Amino acid sequence: MSDRFKKIKEIKKESITVDFFYNECKNRFKLTKISSKDINPKKVIIDKDLHRPGLALAGYVDLFTYNRIQIFGNTEVKYLYQLNDKARYETLKKYLSFDVPCVIITNNNDVPPEFISLADERDIPVFRTPYQTTRFSYFVSDFLDDQFSLQVVLHSSFVDVYGVGLLFCGKSGIGKSEIALDLIERGHRLVADDIVLISKKAESVLMGSGTSLVKHFMEVRGLGIIDVRKIFGIRAIRFQKRVEVIVELETWDNKKSYDRTGLNCDISNILGVEVETINLPIFPGKNITVISEVIALNYLCKHYGYDAAMVFGERLHDQIKTNKEFKEMKEKGDKYDRIVKYFEHDFE
């Protein structure tokens, strides 16, 4: 396993603002703000987990994780309504005395008026969604997990080739952008060039994208900055893609031994995720673009259960084991035998 990315600095957000969360999620998850005050821009979310405050409403706050987004489902709302006015007010007053980032009411439930007034006093935004609690929690947890995920920034080019995310790495000036440009011209799609932001999703998925500044601009040495989207159209770009194969470009070295069978697959580790890596030596006249397409197609073959290197290795092993054809060749004095024994009368 290669440790080429071991020293790459990891990045992780410490917090996101509630205002950012609301603006990004209001259309995705049908959130509406039911509190009357504007969202305080200093109000932040620092934890990716959610909290349902059943025990906190009942009065037990010793283990109350108030710094998380608070979810009020049917159970919490019905509990509030079964309290008398005085008890409900005291319960909400105690609960909202904590500095919670925001409260979200699911299932389009209505809440008592004192809930909104007390939340406004404490500058706590209250939102509502028609989604059921379990489904909404899944959506929001995925969003927060993405926002607080580990990230790294790599100097590379990232292209979607036949649906496979190829990340081209190598020293500056080796030709990463030119290869990406050639692939785009052949109908493949650019994700990012020069600066690629890679985020860890779940435990075994790496997602790559460009930055908000660079987007789909590309620097071609000798030509300058070009806008891939404007030149090649919308079909030539995409905003995100899973990182599936790393193509490490390096100058040909006669003294170095390169893999010629594909049986010993190299692996790179990025953010704890193992990614198949191809060490590709380059020299003038070598068609890296076509080889890149073959890398993608070969990856798809392996992904769907066919590994050419393994199949050839098994054939070779079986042939050596039986030794039958080798003996026949030796007796005939032939070094090689045709795959077709007789051409019949087909001369095409």
Set out the fold topology:
Elements: E1 16-17, H1 18-25, E2 32-33, E3 44-45, E4 50-51, H2 54-58, E5 69-72, H3 74-81, H4 85-95, E6 103-105, H5 113-121, E7 126-128, H6 133-147, E8 151-161, E9 164-169, H7 176-185, E10 189-201, E11 205-209, E12 217-220, E13 224-227, H8 228-232, E14 241-242, E15 245-251, E16 266-270, E17 273-282, H9 288-303, H10 308-322, H11 324-332
Parallel strand pairs: 4-5, 5-6, 6-7, 9-15, 15-17
Antiparallel strand pairs: 1-3, 2-7, 8-9, 8-10, 10-11, 11-14, 12-13, 16-17
Helix pairs in contact: 7-9
Please, could you describe this protein's structure?
- The protein folds into 2 domains: 16-147, HprK N-terminal domain-like (Udp-n-acetylmuramoylalanyl-d-glutamate--2,6- Diaminopimelate Ligase, Chain: A, domain 1, 3-Layer(aba) Sandwich); 151-303, P-loop containing nucleotide triphosphate hydrolases (Rossmann fold).
- Helix content is 32%, strand content 24%.
- It has helices at residues 18-25, 54-58, 74-81, 85-95, 113-121, 133-147, 176-185, 228-232, 288-303, 308-322, 324-332; strands at 16-17, 32-33, 44-45, 50-51, 69-72, 103-105, 126-128, 151-161, 164-169, 189-201, 205-209, 217-220, 224-227, 241-242, 245-251, 266-270, 273-282.
- Strands 14-11-10-8-9-15-17-16 form an 8-stranded mixed β-sheet.
